[in-house]
Amino acid sequence: MGSPLYRKGRSAIAALGLFVFSACRRAPPPKPLPPPAAATVDGVPIPVARLQIELDRLRQSGGEAPAQVTAQEVPTFARALLDGLVDRALVLERAHAAGLSVSDAELQRATESLAGSDPDEMRDRLLAEKYVAEQTKKEIASTAETRAWYDTHRAQFEEPEAVHCLQIALRTPDEAKSALDQLRKGAAFDQLAQKLSISPDGKLGGDLGWFSRGRMPKAFDDACFSLGNGKISGVVASPYGFHVFKLLGRRSARMRKFEDVKRDAELRATVEKRAQAERALLAQLRASAEIRVDTSSLALLK
């Protein structure tokens, strides 16, 4: 049976073993809480960190002059950006359900054109665009819709008054005066331009092509639009040197006829029609989804 001391020791060891066994069976520590979500779309979270990335990208969108977003403006901008992320999540959900995918080759082409882009984000963006394109590809403007679009946007098909001119550009007023004297004595303008002009168009005989007001420096407009057909200007000074111009032709302002621009108008009308279809699609997806926005999470943004 053993001594009392022996029995006491065995009891202590047994108690210790029970304690160790209990410790081994103790419940594991709780899992860490998921990162805060700005919203959930059908149960899928959009992390606040993801929204912060979009906000930081907005600030850098100005290149060397980043967009300024004050602390007071953060919630407004963040909510607009969050709406875009929600729309993309809805589209991606449907794209995956439809079995669409983005190949590695498609991803590589896109990432090569946008250096530094995140591949996973780019894949999602391409997949969303592919789904929207599939859903809206049948939206093509009819002839009647194209005509209506043309009538509404006639200003886009107006061609302003234009002139067709040659020039000889030189470094000094004396050089320009000498060229003008040669022209007045019968020298061929295009040949003299090839010989003397310092402007790249000199190789083309000084041909500036057709241009409307505002496309060339003001000195060019003032000289060329005041000339008669076939006439030669005097010496004209500009920030680029000293010039002599010859007017080859003048074209009055005109409206391009529907028949002449029908294809162009159809493409533009179709783009607008598909944009309307995309908005309707997103509204439909939102109406059938469970979207929860945690506005309090916007306070975590900076």
Can you characterise this structure?
The chain has helices spanning 4-24, 48-60, 74-97, 104-113, 119-136, 143-152, 173-184, 189-196, 218-224, 258-287; strands at residues 37-41, 44-47, 158-159, 162-170, 207-212, 236-238, 241-251, 254-255, 291-293. It has 302 residues and is an alpha+beta fold. Among the domains are: 37-135 and 289-300, Porin chaperone SurA, peptide-binding domain (Triger factor/SurA peptide-binding fold); 161-252, Chitinase A, domain 3. The strands form three sheets. A four-stranded antiparallel sheet has the order 5-4-7-6, with helices on both faces. A three-stranded antiparallel sheet has the order 2-1-9. The chain has a two-stranded antiparallel sheet with strand order 3-8. Strand 1 and strand 2 (44-47) form a beta hairpin. Helix 4 (104-113) crosses helix 5 and helix 6 packs across helix 10 (258-287). The radius of gyration is 36 Å and the shape is elongated. The N and C termini lie far apart (74 Å). The model is unreliable at 12-16 (pLDDT under 50).
